[in-house]
Every structure is written in structure tokens, then in C-alpha cells.
Write a structure and sequence with these properties.
Helices cover 86% and strands 0% of the residues. It is mainly alpha-helical. Helix 1 crosses helix 2 and helix 1 crosses helix 3.
């Protein structure tokens, strides 16, 4: 049981690293599969649990990502 608990903890930590890099859930799933051989379903499940436990954080996170994408699109279209 300790092995699965430490594995989930490691996935949790890696998801936090993805958040630092402002990645989407899908980007994180892809990166963890490619670089750490973690199945996307596991990343998705852990991410979803983090969302449930940290609703306020993820609301701000998603709004910030959306705003950054909107600014990126508007600045590239005005160039």
C-alpha cells in the first residue's frame, strides 16, 4: 500500500511542476507520459482529485491561463 501511496504522491508532485509551467491538464498528461512513463489516466485522476481539493486555486489558475491566452492572441493579431 505504501508503494501506491508514494506513487500517487510522486504524480501529485509532478503535476505541481506542470502547474508551475502553466500547462493544461492535457499538456501535463502528455508530458508525464512522455517523460515519466505515467499513464494519462493516472495523471487525469490525480489532477481531478487536486481540482476537488483546491477549487479556489484551480479557478484562479484556469482564469489566469485563459487571460494569458487571450492576451497572446490579441497581441499576435495586432502585430
Amino acid at each position: 500500500m505504501a508503494d501506491s501511496s508514494s506513487y500517487i504522491h510522486m504524480v501529485h508532485h509532478l503535476i505541481e511542476e506542470c502547474l508551475i509551467f502553466n500547462m493544461s491538464k492535457e499538456e501535463c498528461m502528455e508530458a508525464l507520459y512522455k517523460h515519466a512513463n505515467i499513464m494519462p489516466a493516472i495523471t487525469s485522476t490525480v489532477w481531478s482529485e487536486l481540482e476537488k481539493e483546491n477549487k479556489d486555486f484551480f479557478e484562479v489558475y484556469y482564469n489566469t491561463r485563459r487571460d494569458a491566452q487571450t492576451q497572446s492572441i490579441s497581441s499576435s493579431s495586432s502585430s
